[in-house]
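Running this now, will post back.
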Amino acid sequence: MTASSPGSRAQAEARPGRPSVVELRLAAFAAHRRAGFPLGPLSLFAGPSGSGKSSALRAYEALARLGGGAELDEVFPDPVACVPEQARPDAQRRRGFRIGCTADGPEGPVRLDVAVQAEPELRIVGERLTAGGLTLLETALRDPSRRSVQAAWHTAGASPVTRAPLPDDRLGTPLLPLRVAGKTDGQRQVLAAAEQMVVALRSVFACDPLPRSMRTAVPLGAGRLLRGCGNLAEVLWRTRSECGRRHGLLVDAVRAGCAGPVHDLLAERPVGGIDGTVWALLDRGDGLRTPLGRLGDGELRYLALSLVLLTGPGVLEVDTAGEVPAALQTLTVLADGFDRDLDVRQRKGLVRLAARMCERGHIRLVGAVSDASWAAGVGGVTVVDLEA
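Update: finished.
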């Protein structure tokens, strides 16, 4: 695996006050063993089918959901699929996997490493949160008959550590604010590191636009874009009137990536359609409008990903840290098949748009592509080559 990042100095330096994940570690997960992947504001995992691109994004999303407090069985509905194929069970028939990440921010680099048992039953068997060479939280499974792990966190008071049980079906790091009083310097250090990790992980939007789902009219609802982008028309119905400037940027992007003239992108109620539904159209000018159903798969994926990059948590279906000011948060977009169905012109246009948006610091993107040679020369792109 190699990584290259020809980005500008401004993109390479972490933004003060904006925690972000700068490394993904897959010690033992699916096809990955002892792997560490550096992540920049815009990162592309590149490699052929079977090289582990999608599983890397799946591990990132899993960490994000665990950081948001999700239960283990919700995050890993098929945990055995995450176990390395060659992993041998121990004497108690136990097998599992290990994932982790590093989040940089005001507290400096903070590392989180998690060991998950997949068989014979799903549970977290170990977790470690470290910063500056100091272990701030460590958990371990002491008694397999109990549904808990023994946790010890840094105190630096009359007692160097505090010990207590934590549940084995969810991550301990996001639970620390409920368990740590924050009375000593050590406890405050633990809380600050845990908060940085949770904020860095929390706001994630995983998407893989499905063109077939964007071709028909959809019912009006909350106006928040879903993972497959099938409700794109509903979102356009909302955003076109709410933010004219961003809609103008979206139209410019669509104009560059779709064939034929594009004067506008809009949503309207179809004539004779079902009440309460809308569909999306391209305004070609001179009264000609093209329903999105007539566009090719590449055009639809390009359009949907452009919309994702030009919006934010208020439009995307994401779980944000509501207790943290928006100015201190960064949205991370996980885009599997980032280049799927796109021609060279669309790929280059989309990665340039992503680079411009990521340079501002409020959004990051981690994508999976079959080949990243077309991204050469675009500033700010970190390429993780899984075949090198």
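The longest strand covers residues 20-29. More later if anyone needs it.
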